[in-house]
Amino acid sequence: MSLYDQIAEVLQKGQVAEVQRLVKEALDQGLKSEGILNEGLLKGMMDIGDRWKRNEAFVPEVLIAARAMNGGMEVLEKALADEDVKPKGTVVMGTVKGDLHDIGKNLVVMMMKGAGYKVIDLGVDIPAEKFVEAAEAHQADVVCMSALLTTTMPYIKTVVDEFENKGVREKYAIMAGGAPVTEEYVKEVGGDFYTKDAVSAADKLAEIIN
Ligand code: B1M
């Protein structure tokens, strides 16, 4: 079994320490971070997601797999951070209020950090006021939001409106993404940018901040 397959397998069993050990081993063997992420960690996460959809796995199993995913990403993040150092700009990032999904957000954060940006990660379930406070406190260039549920997607508008209400909307570029989010939707609710995945989100920063 390849190292990628082993990572995907132990991730689904929720074995954090073993996932981290295998990710380290893969890095030591010279495997690329991108391959470890896509073929190993994400592959395992998608497999358990599919099993959940088919009622072959249950929420606690998805949760422990998610914890193992984040553990593996910590190791990868360190490796990516070592590759680049000078901050190119500041980003405030969070998953919107009511939404606890953080794997995609963490991936976006990791790619942005890896691309050389300072990222203030607010976490999950973040109310609109917190986005504004953090953007102001850290003099951010870009405010980023993640939403994974069709029920929390409308909160992107709440956050944009909060920036308007506080009179600071023009100071920041606002970008949003997440599985149910579309470019049309982000534009419709007054945001500036949509990107579909972590790599394109990090790439987009180079266009926004210059
Ligand atoms: Co949730 N969940 N979940 N869940 N969960 C989904 C999203 C769902 C599609 C599953 C399903 O039904 N098939 C479904 C949403 C349906 C919908 O709204 N249309 C769903 C549901 C319904 C729920 C609950 C309501 C279930 C319940 O309790 N009845 C509940 C809600 C809890 C809450 O948030 N309030 C819930 C709970 C959970 C867990 C806690 C068990 C767990 C989350 C653990 C965690 O995140 N720490 C979980 C998980 C793991 C999933 C699935 C299986 C995987 C999500 C994921 O991590 N994907 C998911 C089904 C699936 O996607 N197969 C599902 C991998 C990740 C890398 O992708 O997050 O899309 P993603 O991020 C991508 C892009 O979207 C993009 O880049 C990322 C990387 O490429 N992106 C951005 C994300 N943010 C971006 C921001 C950007 C740009 C790009 O710019 C700023």
From TrEMBL:
GO terms for molecular function: cobalamin binding; metal ion binding; methionine synthase activity. PANTHER family: METHIONINE SYNTHASE. Belongs to the methylamine corrinoid protein family. Residues 1-88 form the B12-binding N-terminal domain. This is 5-methyltetrahydrofolate--homocysteine methyltransferase. It holds the Pfam family B12-binding. Keywords: Cobalt, Metal-binding, Methyltransferase, Transferase. Residues 88-210 form the B12-binding domain. PROSITE patterns: B12_BINDING, B12_BINDING_NTER. CDD domains: corrinoid_protein_B12-BD. SMART domains: B12-binding_2. SUPFAM superfamilies: Cobalamin (vitamin B12)-binding domain, Methionine synthase domain. GO terms for biological process: homocysteine metabolic process; methylation; tetrahydrofolate metabolic process. GO terms for cellular component: cytosol. InterPro entries: Cbl-bd_cap, Cobalamin-bd, Cobalamin-bd_sf, Met_Synthase/Corrinoid, Meth_synthase_dom.
